[in-house]
Every structure is written in structure tokens, then in C-alpha cells.
Amino acid sequence: MEEEANVTNETPAQHEQRQAEERRASYLELFFDLVFVYAITQVTGLILGDTSPGGFLRALFVLGMIWWAWSAYAWLTNAIDLHTAVARAAILVGAGASFLVALAVPDAYGDDGLWFALPYLLVRVVHLMVYMYGLRDDREYQLGVLRSLPFWLLSPFLVVAGAFVDGDGRAWIWGAAIALDIAGSLIAGRQTYRVSAAHFAERYQLFIIIALGESIVAVAIGMRELERDVAYGVAAAVAFYGAALLWWAYFDFAGIGGERALHAVPAERRGRLARDVYTYLHFPMVAGIILFAVAAEKTVAHPGDALSTAGRFALVAGLGLYMLAFVGLRWRVLRRWAYERAAAVPLVALAVLVTPELDALVVLALALGVLSACIAVEAIRLREVRARLHVA
After folding, report:
1. Is 191 in a helix, a strand, or coil?
2. Sign of the CA dihedral running 312, 317, 322, 328
3. Residue closest to 390 by CA, chosen among 192, 202, 252
């Protein structure tokens, strides 16, 4: 009753603030995320088509462009009212264009580069138009976006220009487009971007869990033609355990900690923290999930053979990027080191690289075992912190 009285007696400004903090992700946003995660997981096929060092780098550029486009919409939907017909229609147009982007990802560096670049341009232009329209009554926020607008508008046009260039030139032009987006976000970080903490954190949490689910699907598709025997069952179990372990590493308490950190900082600093923790530091997490899926696919395809050099690189880089992202996250939020997760990076690399003769399935299991031990030690060391986060 006392809580109801407090809500009834709140001022209009307090009511607006409470609604912003209690806002959750909508079904429209979830639908949009599903389409974009499909585009993200298509990068797995792009990597498997070219496992050279250059192939990994080119795939990273495509992943970066897709991530930046999705993240831009996460900021957009956090800032505007999605209940209007204009906003909903625009988000659906963006989702449709992103579906075309996803279909073109496996051949993004081939002859059909424009099928990737032109829908990508539409995704980004729709985002900026809706952003400006949705903030028409919030002049301060709109001016903050306008300062970064030249960078965010030039970037997708540069992507289209890159589609007309063959070879490595296309990759470097697309890398420059990503650099423009990052420059725009650094300028945006100087402004006061109002962020609804619960909604913003939930968008990224949902993206991570959908990406993990899609990575399992990608591995399952690669196993369709395999013979159903003991090795098949063990490979499926180990691959699933790996995805579950990545889920545990994020959702046990790290994901909750990020949201609580957003709630705790003053409103004028929340935008910068959201940018660093979610837009920046969640990208290596997503890249890690994709690379782990590549390693898992290569493992389950030939579990009794030695894991290829590309498969070992994907496994080490995938788990390493995923763990290092948490190291950076904890340092950014608490100025403390995630010792166990930092230690997991060289230990996993050592376990994978010094066992070149072992079967692929054994190498994958060994790497996951090392990672499990590090996370278990962390869970014991921080058990009181974990308990407070889950109770609060």
C-alpha cells in the first residue's frame, strides 16, 4: 500500500522517469532482433567459405557492419515511442532490408556485393530518418544525434562504394566505413544521451541469447548428413555444452551486473557507459560466439580427425574474445580485474595449441574443460557478489 501511495503522489517528471526505467523490450523489437541475428550467424558461412587469415579479417568487417547497424537500432528504439504507426512501419522496413542483407552475407565479397550493400544502405538511412522523426519533440537529444549524423550517413554510402571495388579493396573500404561509425559514436559520447537502463540492457541480453541459440542451429545443420553413432552423440553433447557454458558465463551474473551499473550512474553519464559496455564490449562477445560456432562445426564434421589450423584459431580466438570482453566490462564498470577470465585466455590457447595430434573432439572438450574450471573458480571467489546481484 505504501508503494502504491508513493506512485500515486509522484510528480509528472517522476512518473515519466519511472516508466522509462520499467520499460521492457517489445515483441516488435524481438522480431527485429531475430532477423538481425540471422544476418550475424550467416557470417559463420562466410568464414567457412574462406578460412585464410584474410578470410577471417573480411568476415570480421562484415560482422562489424551488421553489428553496428543493429546496435544503432537498439539506441533508436530505446529513445523513441514505438507505439506509433510510423515508427512500427519503419522498423519493419528496416527488418525487411536486414533480411536481404542476411541473404547476401555469404557472397558479400563476390559478384553480388551490391545485394549486400544496397539493403544495408536502406537499413541505415531508415534508422537515421526515424531517429530524427522520433526525437522531434526532444531538441537536446536530437542535436546530439545531429552532431554525429555526417559520420553515420557517410558510412553506409561508403559501403555501397566498396561494392563496386573488387578484391581486398572492398574489404578495406568497408573497414573504413566501420571506422566512420566508431568516430561518430565517440562524438556522440560527448553528449547526454538519455538511456532507459532496463530496456537497453535487455535488448543486448536478448541478442546474446538469440545468437547462442542460432549458433547451436548452425552446428546442428552441419551435422545433418553425419552417421548416427557414438561419436555423433558425443560431438553433439560437447558442442551443446560449449554453447551452454557461454550462456552461463554471461547470464550467471555478468549480464545482471551490466544492467545494475547502468541504473547506478547519473543520467548524464549513462549514455557513455551504455556505449562502452554494450555497443563496444558486446561486439567481441558476439564475434566470440560466431568463431566458437565455426570451431564447433569443424569439430562435429570430423570429430575423429585432427582439428585444422583454422579450426584451432577459431576456437582460441572465439573463447578468448568472449572472455576478454568480460575483462573489459568489469574494468569499465568497477575498475577491477576479472582475474579468472583473463587467465582463461592463455590457458585455453595453451590447451589447444600444444595438442596438435589429438582428435578434434578431444581438443574442443579440453578447451571447454579449462574454461569451465576458470569460471567455477570465479563463481566460488565471487559467490557473495553473485548472491547479492540475484537477490537485489
Report:
1. coil
2. positive
3. 252
pLDDT digits (tens, 9 = 90+) for 362-382: 999 999 999 999 999 999 998
Whole-angstrom distance, CA of residue 206 vs CA of residue 279: 14
Interatomic CA distance for residues 52 and 49, integer angstroms: 9
> What's the confidence (pLDDT) of residue 390?
65
The maximal CA–CA distance of the chain, rounded, in angstroms, is 70
**Cβ atoms 325, 281 nearer than 8 A:** yes
CA distance from start to end of the chain: 21
The enclosing H or E element of 344 equals helix 339-353
DSSP for 139-174 reads HHHHHHHHHHHHHHHHHHHHHHHHHTS-THHHHHHH
pLDDT at 4 over 60: no
Who's near 299: CB < 8 A, 6+ residues apart?
Answer: 235, 238, 239, 307, 311, 360, 361, 363, 364
Does the pTM exceed 0.70? Answer: yes
What's the CA gap between 158 and 151, in Å, rounded? 10
CATH number, span 197-392: 1.20.1410
Q: Which residues contact 279 (CB under 8 A, 6 or more apart)?
A: 71, 74, 75, 185
Q: Cell digits for 21? A: 526505467
Q: Where are the domains of the chain?
A: 25-194, 197-392
Residues paired with residue 306 on neighbouring β-strands, in sequence order:
359
Residue 359's φ and ψ, nearest 5 degrees, are -65, 150
Q: Which residue has the cell 533480411?
A: 99
d(CA 270, CA 190): 11
| Mean pLDDT calculated for residue range 228-244 | 90
Please state, as a whole number, how many other Cβ atoms lie within 10 Å of the Cβ of residue 270.
21
Q: Which of 71, 67, 95, 82 is nearest to 24 (CA)?
A: 82
CB 322 within 8 A of CB 285: yes
Are 282 and 324 a contacting pair, CB within 8 Å? no
Contact of 10 with 19, CB cutoff 8 Å: no
Q: Is the pLDDT of residue 24 over 50?
A: yes
261 grid coordinates? 551499473
Q: Give the type of residue at 377.
A: V
Spatial contact of 127 and 94, defined as CB atoms under 8 Å apart = yes
